[in-house]
Amino acid sequence: MGKIYNKNTFLLLFVIAAISLNLRLGITSVGPLMDSIRTSLSLSNAQASLLTTVPVLCMGIFASLATVLNKKYGSKFTLILMLAVLGLATALRGFLPGFSTLLITAFLIGLAIAVLGPTMSAVIKKYFPGHAAIAIGISTFFMSMGSAASAALTGIFFEVSDSYMFALAIWAVFGLFGVLVVAFVLRTGASSTLPKQNVTEVKYNFPSPWKQFTPYLFMLFYALQAALYFSTITWLVPMSVENGMTMIQGGMLLSAVMSVQVIFNLLLPIMMEKYPARRNWIYFILVSGTIATLLFWTGDHTLMWIGAFMMGIPLGGLYSAALMLPLDETVTADGANSWTAMMQTGGCILGGLFPFVIGFIYDGTQNHNYTMSILLAIYASAFILITIIGNKKEKNYDDYIVKPSDN
């Protein structure tokens, strides 16, 4: 395999970090301002939740677009284009007021993230043979750093500026930063000196993931983790305010969740690579999340803080585990791209509906006990599903090798 850690690989990790910072900012920055946006624009809870639901649905609907763009234009152009779309959409929130602007920009942000995720998975699979867990850890670490920063600072930006538009749009600077980094640092194709997979001399002809059973299990698992993640970042602050906290305190509570998430986004892939019994790790994560939800349900502020720190474990760990699943089961960059795109397609469509469902139920009941019940049901379902999926299985790919013609 050869030495993979050199100047060029560290530059690639820097590129991955710059892209990853942007992958949740346009979504997580909405949560701390949910009540303020809803009040300013006279929205129902269900309408306000669409600002989270729409981009997540787009992340699913347009995930397969990554495969098309990568094949036609290459990974570098695709990354630059989508980062530019993401940055411009975020910036527009500061110039054009209104709910329609927020919905349109939410759509564009979701579209960009939908393509960026699978494209990065393909790059990681290609340039980090046997060490994908480390690159995934770097990616999820910086994605969580961006989430934690937006959770902690968006409310402060709003208090200082007295404008939800400014508080949302300020995060566009990271999109511009990502464009510059990819344009001037990333080297692909013939100009790249990064090591690639040893299997590049062998051509494979794998069936589409849509024609296999295992990818559907991965899709459902991704859907459950997406439901937990986006429901939590959407409704944690409103639930905190309902229990007597201020918006700033609720934002700091969400920031605590994201800070712990940062640690587990980085730690879990490394531990899964060193101790590959992934099912046991995920059991631990799910139990932690279940306890955290029960603690938060009490409404006691001290227990809520303890629960918030514990809640960062599933929000960080489950996403990393979900990304590792298709990388463990595929042998080529194209395979990782197609499996990840499929997993994200169905997973985001299913999981992205939950914040809206919770908002709709809350509009009718004015009671977040139903929210907590839904979250606990998701944890129970994930526990059953990962039991079915099990640990990583060694496979023989020889039957899929394309034999050279005899001519």
UniProtKB/TrEMBL annotation:
Keywords: Membrane, Transmembrane, Transmembrane helix, Transport. It holds the Pfam family MFS_1. It is found in: Cell membrane. It comes from the Bacteria. The keyword Isomerase does not apply. Its main location: membrane. It is a multi-pass membrane protein. Residues 10-395 form the Major facilitator superfamily (MFS) profile domain. The keyword Iron does not apply. The chain crosses the membrane at residues 50-70, 77-96, 102-120, 132-158, 164-186, 216-236, 248-268, 280-297, 303-327, 339-362, 368-389. PANTHER family: 2-NITROIMIDAZOLE TRANSPORTER, PTHR23523. This is CP family cyanate transporter-like MFS transporter.
